[in-house]
Design brief:
Layout (H helix, E strand, L loop, with lengths): L29 E4 L4 E7 L8 E6 L5 E5 L11 E4 L9 E3 L8 E5 L9 E4 L11 E4 L6 E5 L8 E6 L4 E5 L11 E4 L4 E7 L8 E6 L6 E4 L11 E3 L5 E10 L8 E8 L4 E9 L5 E8 L4 E7 L8 E6 L7 E5 L11 E4 L4 E7 L8 E6 L4 E5 L9 E2 L5 E2 L12 E7 L9 E2 L8 E3 L4 E6 L2 E2 L2 E5 L2 E5 L10 E8 L2 E2 L3 E4 L6 E2 L8 E2 L2 E3 L2 H7 L22 E7 L4 E3 L24 E3 L4 E4 L2 E10 L7 E6 L7 E10 L2 E2 L5 E5 L1
Parallel strand pairs: 42-52
Antiparallel strand pairs: 1-28, 2-3, 3-4, 4-5, 6-7, 7-8, 8-9, 10-11, 11-12, 12-13, 14-15, 15-16, 16-17, 18-19, 19-20, 20-21, 22-23, 23-24, 24-25, 26-27, 27-28, 29-31, 30-31, 31-37, 32-36, 33-34, 34-35, 34-38, 36-37, 38-39, 38-40, 41-44, 43-44, 44-49, 45-46, 47-48, 47-50, 48-49, 50-51, 50-52
């Protein structure tokens, strides 16, 4: 197992949401004039004042960009315009391409005759830009997306080229430059593209929409080194082809990214929103489609109903008549309620959602081609306080209850965080006692003590139970606070021990994360003591008698002789342990026992993981007389508490 703070929560149990019935409400639309033929919008802090600004791509004429500097209250100043000096800019991409902390802009162009270029404008940090530079002037480009595809910390880009039927990947150098592109065959007329980690391997993948007749949705799984696997094709409904509207988000609350795509039908000239649900291996499954009454230009995913479930936002372009912004309220299970329409100006083209006025609610902004500007809708939907489910505070390892102080635990509920493409995750140690982004500020207290936070989702929070939690009454009280609104207190049981073994399924049952402790066992023998190919991304080889393994565990109680503070680990997260570090200083006060197939195993160490707060390691030796097989039970016990004797297994040969 490759340990990361974010990975600890892949072991979590996720709670599916339920339809809320809440209808969003918005302010009257406000138009901000920009330039000729606005096509796309993006939100970023272009002048570094902590307030969101809006970038608008004006595609008519020679093309230009307009920056609307935000006042922080949902209103914006007059536009700052930058000419591109080329025709038919198609895409607007905002990222820090040269690593100076200032948002930059990248666009690609397509002139309809096989020509086109990629341009980059480096931001100055005041809302203006350096003169545009050509990244590549040798193709016809339709759409682009940014991400770190090779894990070097620099921003890379991928573009679609409909005429070539290809996706081009440009690896960035971190200074605003890019290597020569590598092309991947995509299919019939690739136009739209988004990126996400579809299969949970912490490597970015690509999703592409092919628009030509017979077109489909394709996935290119990333290898993590800047290269991608061959395209996997997913058919649309009969007669349907993907258009430019394409978005990724967890629509059914299972922790796997799903896809929503605009689907055009010919020759009927109708359209709909098609939903494809994702799975742990990165494959997609068509779920259903939703007919939309007006021509669709683009879509976005955001929780504008503030019920903790992702909604789909649709920009409806209506050919000079009154346009519509539609919201499909999410039910939390991958389905959506009937669309709610909001009349706007003339032509809603490209839509985005972000908090524009600092109230931690996603607002809406879209480009209006015919009105010549960007239109802002401020979210007026009443916020809901967080609500905790009555099923208590449970072990992240196996869902057990009660748990001792210091444990990694989770609680479920509703409205615990907003729906975003990037969930709230702790990224450093000591763990923070609140998790924040531009839409949320989430914290947990136990008996009034701030709890170190690992992760927050709309229906789930994970945290460390404070070491000083009082056990004398057998219960404790939890409160979640989100954006200054507190949940009702939840009383839950606490106890002395609650042993749990982390498993590859994340449920506390099945294959244990049992890892070879002796380096010679790692290569060539394997990394985990499980059957071959049973654990994605790991080399599985059954153990033999005498092998020393370690398991990830939870709920083993206090450690010593050294004490540890809430949210802390013995060593830093991102640098080596100091020379003074001694693992035995953080051993469990009570030593656990391990049995393998019912045979006692020698435990050589039990204590805290060096860098992950609240996580324990237990080292043990495979007994000489342990039974053999691909599913030999492993049981962890401490004091009078034990894991189930049969539901966690390793492989022994």
């Amino acid at each position: 197992m490759s340990c990361r703070v974010t990975l600890l929560l892949c072991f979590a149990l996720m709670l599916a949401g339920h339809a809320s019935g809440q209808v969003p409400s918005f302010s009257q639309p406000k138009l901000y004039k920009t330039g000729l033929g606005p096509e796309q919008v993006a939100v970023a802090d272009f002048n570094l004042d902590g307030k969101p600004d809006i970038a608008v791509l004006n595609a008519a004429g020679l093309g230009s960009f307009s920056i609307l500097l935000g006042n922080g209250d949902g209103t914006f100043s007059a536009p700052l315009n930058t000419s591109l000096g080329t025709s038919a800019p198609k895409a607007l991409l905002v990222a820090d391409f040269n690593g100076d902390g200032k948002p930059d802009i990248l666009t690609d162009t397509f002139d309809g005759n096989g020509g086109g270029s990629i341009w980059i404008l480096l931001g100055k940090g005041d809302g203006t830009f350096e003169p545009p530079l050509i990244v590549d002037g040798s193709g016809a480009f339709n759409d682009c997306v940014a991400g770190d595809f090779n894990g070097d910390g620099a921003i890379d880009i991928a573009t679609t080229n409909a005429q070539a039927g290809a996706v081009s990947v440009y690896l960035g150098n971190g200074h605003g430059g890019f290597a020569s592109p590598v092309q991947y065959i995509a299919g019939k007329g690739p136009v739209s593209i988004v990126t996400a980690d579809l299969n949970g391997d912490r490597k970015l993948d690509l999703v592409v929409g092919n628009f030509d007749p017979g077109g489909d949705l394709i996935v290119l799984l990333g290898n993590g080194d800047g290269t991608f696997q061959a395209a996997v094709h997913y058919a649309m409904e009969p007669g349907g082809v993907p258009n430019f509207g394409l978005a990724v988000g967890d629509l059914n609350g299972d922790g796997h990214p799903d896809v929503a795509v605009v689907e055009d039908f010919f020759p009927a000239n109708t359209n709909s929103i098609a939903v494809f649900l994702g799975s742990s291996d990165g494959t997609l499954r068509f779920s259903r489609s939703y007919a939309i009454s007006k021509p669709i230009s683009s879509l976005a995913i955001a929780d504008v109903t503030l019920d903790g479930q992702p909604d789909i936002l649709v920009a409806n372009y209506n050919s000079g008549m009154q346009a519509i912004v539609s919201v499909l309220p999410g039910n939390g299970d991958g389905t959506f309620a009937t669309q709610v329409d909001f009349p706007v100006f003339l032509s809603a083209v490209w839509i985005a959602a972000d908090d524009l006025n600092g109230d931690l609610k996603p607002d809406v902004v879209f480009a209006d081609r015919n009105s010549g500007g960007a239109v802002v809708l401020i979210n007026m939907t009443p916020a809901r306080p967080p609500a905790l489910a009555p099923n208590g505070v449970r072990s992240v390892a196996n869902g057990a209850i009660p748990n001792p102080p210091g444990s990694l635990v989770y609680a479920q509920g509703r409205y615990l965080a907003n729906v975003t493409a990037k969930p709230l995750i702790a990224r450093s140690t000591p763990l923070p006692t609140d998790l924040r982004d531009n839409l949320d500020d989430v914290s947990v207290t136990i008996n009034g003590i701030p709890a170190p936070m690992y992760y927050a989702l709309p229906n789930y929070v994970s945290f460390q139970l404070p070491w000083e939690t009082d056990l004398s009454t057998g219960t404790a009280t939890m409160v979640v606070t989100r954006n200054n609104a507190a949940s009702a207190p939840l009383e839950f049981p606490v106890g002395k021990f609650s042993p749990g073994i982390f498993t590859t399924a994340g449920s506390g049952t099945g294959l244990a994360w049992a890892i070879y402790a002796v380096p010679s066992k790692i290569d060539p023998k394997g990394t985990v003591a499980q059957p071959a190919k049973s654990v994605p991304g790991q080399v599985g080889v059954p153990a033999t008698a005498g092998d020393v393994l370690y398991i990830y565990a939870g709920g083993l109680g206090p450690v010593g002789p050294k004490t540890i503070l809430d949210g802390e680990a013995p060593c830093p997260l991102t640098s080596p342990c100091p020379a003074s570090y001694n693992a035995s200083d953080y051993s469990t006060i009570t030593k656990p026992t391990v049995t393998v197939g019912g045979i006692p195993a020698a435990v050589t160490f039990s204590g805290l993981h060096p860098v992950y707060p609240g996580l324990y390691l237990v080292y043990f030796k495979i007994p000489a007389n342990a039974p053999k097989g691909n599913a030999v039970p492993v049981q962890l016990s401490i004091d009078s508490f034990s894991t189930d004797p049969a539901n966690v297994t390793i492989a022994i040969q």
